[in-house]
Amino acid sequence: MSSKESCSSSSKDSGASSNSNSKESYSGEVAVKKILNETRGGNMDFFAEMNTISEAKHKNLVKLKGWCCKDSNRNMLDFMCWCCRKKKDEELFLVYELVPNGNLEHHLHENEQVIQWPTRYQIAKDIGSALVYLHHDCSPYILHRDIKPANILLDNNFNAKLADFGLSRIGNQDNATLVTTAVGTEGYIDPQCRKSGKVKFNLSSDVYSFGIVLLDITCTRKSREQVWDLYVRGRVLEAADDRLYGCGDLDMSQLERVAILGLWCSLPDSRKRPTSQEAMEVLERGVSLPDLNDLLNTTSVPSTMQQDTYTTSSSGPQAPPSDENPFGERHA
């Protein structure tokens, strides 16, 4: 474990948590996530995150290296008891491997250097692989609940790792739906999840978020509504990120398939979406895509898409503010 001083030396508060670089006393640089204990549940949220991440080990997931916190030793039973205390303003930290090349949000929307298509395609497969692992290889399965470009970290070779399990929960095999308070990020959260300030998450809601990420990878700065409108007219390639043209190798057929897969994953009817395994079969094995018009039996933009259209700006896809929106503005 890193020392208390090295864990807390440069953390800055931001929302529910913050990330900073620090020095781990035994193995070099790490990333430190500070959990803010402003409420009674803060410590238990911290323990839940640590427990979830410690059970998940995959090359495309950010690796948890350890934890450190004030007035607690390394004994797990003692740590669990510490987590149950009701004190506020205590310092809680998770220590992760350092993924040094920033996040996908930055590279798609803020960096002047354009990510070429082969790299984008590999990023899509990396995240799909992580999602298959969480949904189908972990027992019980794990819901991420906040898949978005800002939670996709890149190493120096642009290998992608899914991060921020602060909103993750381990699923109950006997109950495929998790009911919780409103979490996630507007523009990426499945519209079917939302009801009266509560969110009903399931495997399909993660797939929806993955689909929006795929649209962001292929059609950066285009709304989902725009992509769908072009798809039903057989012109989905017109939605592609303009910066990809003339920028390295561009497989147009591959790009088209990923864009359509993004639309399939984000269909308004969760029963008609693919599983994460089926999505990966499209990405890795070239399995045929369905005709989405046949699935929806429509040639117009689905009504739930019209109600939940997002626009794209330098900060990524956003849902428009609405009096009916129980979550208010999007927070990255």
UniProtKB/TrEMBL annotation:
One CC-aspect GO term: plasma membrane
Q: Is Coiled coil found in the keyword set?
A: no
Q: Where is this region: Disordered?
A: 1-24, 293-332
A Pfam entry, by short name:
Pkinase
The record places domain Protein kinase at: 1-292
Classify the source by domain of life.
Answer: Eukaryota
By its UniProt entry, which SUPFAM superfamilies does this protein fall under?
A: Protein kinase-like (PK-like)
Q: Where is the composition biased (Polar residues)?
A: 295-317
The record's Gene Ontology biological-process terms are: defense response to oomycetes
Classification via Gene3D superfamilies: Phosphorylase Kinase, domain 1, Transferase(Phosphotransferase) domain 1
Q: Which UniProt keywords apply?
A: ATP-binding, Cell membrane, Glycoprotein, Membrane, Nucleotide-binding, Receptor, Signal, Transmembrane, Transmembrane helix
- Location(s), subcellular: Cell membrane
Q: Does the keyword Ribosomal protein apply?
A: no
Q: Which GO terms describe its molecular function?
A: ATP binding; protein kinase activity
Protein topology in the membrane: Single-pass type I membrane protein
Q: Where is it predominantly found? A: membrane
Alphabetized PROSITE patterns for the sequence: PROTEIN_KINASE_DOM, PROTEIN_KINASE_ST
Q: Which family does it belong to?
A: In the N-terminal section; belongs to the leguminous lectin family.
Official protein name in the record = Protein kinase domain-containing protein
Q: Which species does the entry assign this protein to?
A: Triticum aestivum
